[in-house]
Design brief:
Largest interface: A-B, 47 and 47 residues
CATH architecture of the largest domain in chain A: Orthogonal Bundle
Radius of gyration of chain A: 23 Å
Number of strands of chain A: 2
Oligomer: homodimer
Strand order of the largest sheet of chain A: 1-2
DNA sequence: TCTTGATGCTCTAGTGACTAGAGGCCCTAC
DNA sequence: GTAGGGCCTCTAGTCACTAGAGCATCAAGA
C-alpha cells in the first residue's frame, strides 16, 4: 500500500494534482486508513502512470478519460483508441508547423536589432505590423 | 471613430476579448459616446493591432504589457524589447523540440495498430508504459 | 511515552486568457 | 415608431492545475 506522497514520488505527479484527478473522476477513489488518509494499491499506481504518460504526450484529460473508459473492453474499441492517438498526432504536427512559422518570424524580428544601436529599434514596429511578415501565421 | 464591433472586425479580435484587454489595463480606456458606448480612434486600432500580432506570435499578455510600456521611451529600451523577443524565440524553439519528440512517439504508438486486428490493441499498453519510449519526453 | 517535523486532510481561491449567458439599453434603417 | 442588431455591465465557467489556511495524523528519535 502506498500513501499519496509515495505515489507522487514514484510517478512524478504532484500531490494536489493527484487529489484533483480523483476529484474530477479520472482516478478512482482509493481506500482510506484508520486516520482517513488515502492508501493506494498497484492498480492506483498503474492508473496514475497511464495518466502521467498520456499527459506528457499532450492528451487532454478528456481524451484520457475516454482512453481509460476503453480499457475495460479492449478488443472492440481498439479502433477508437487508435483514432484518439492519431488525432492527437495530427494535432501535434499542426502545432509544430505553426510554431516553425512563428520561429522564423521571430528570428527576422530579432535580427532587426543585431547591429546594436544603428537600426534600433525596429522590433516594436515589426511587432505592430503584420504586413511585414513573410508568411501567414496563426 | 470606430465602435467596438468595427474594431473587432478590422482586427479579428472578438468583442469580449477587447473589453477584457481594457479591463486588465492592456488597452487604454477609450472615450464614450452619449449612450455610453465605446468609441475608438486610430490609436486604439493600432494598439489592438499590436496586441493581436504579438499574441499570434505567442507572447503572453504580460510580455505585451512590458513591450507596450517601452513604447513611450523607445531609444533607451531597445535592448529590453530585443531581450523579450529573443527569449520568446528560445521559448518557441524549445516547444518545437519537445513537440517533435512527442510526434515521433505518437507515430510509434499509432503504428502499433497498423495491421488491423492482428497486433491490436497495443495502443493503450504503450500509453501506459513509458519504458517503451525510445527517447525522453517532457 | 513524549515530542517533533513531515506528511496528510478539507476547503477556498487564484492563475491565464479568454468565453458564455443573463438582462437590459442604444442606434440605425425602414 | 418600431424592429432587430449591436452594445452595456455583471457573473460565472473553461482547463489543468497551484497556493494557502488551518487543522489532523504518522513515523522516528529521545
Amino acid at each position: 500500500m502506498f500513501s499519496i506522497g509515495q505515489l507522487s514520488k514514484a510517478t512524478g505527479v504532484k500531490v494536489p494534482t493527484i487529489r484533483y484527478y480523483e476529484e474530477i473522476g479520472l482516478l478512482p477513489e482509493p481506500g482510506r486508513n484508520a486516520g482517513n488518509q488515502r492508501r493506494y494499491g498497484q492498480d492506483g499506481m498503474d492508473a496514475l502512470g497511464f495518466i502521467k504518460h498520456a499527459r506528457d504526450l499532450g492528451f487532454s484529460l478528456e481524451d484520457i478519460k475516454a482512453l481509460m473508459g476503453l480499457d475495460g473492453h479492449l478488443g472492440d474499441d481498439c479502433a477508437e483508441a487508435d483514432r484518439i492517438a492519431r488525432s492527437q498526432l495530427a494535432n501535434v504536427r499542426d502545432r509544430i508547423r505553426k510554431l516553425r512559422q512563428l520561429a522564423s518570424e521571430l528570428e527576422r524580428i530579432s535580427h532587426l536589432c543585431d547591429g546594436g544601436n544603428g537600426g534600433c529599434c525596429k522590433v516594436l514596429t515589426a511587432l505592430g505590423d503584420h504586413s511585414q511578415c513573410a508568411g501567414e501565421h496563426e
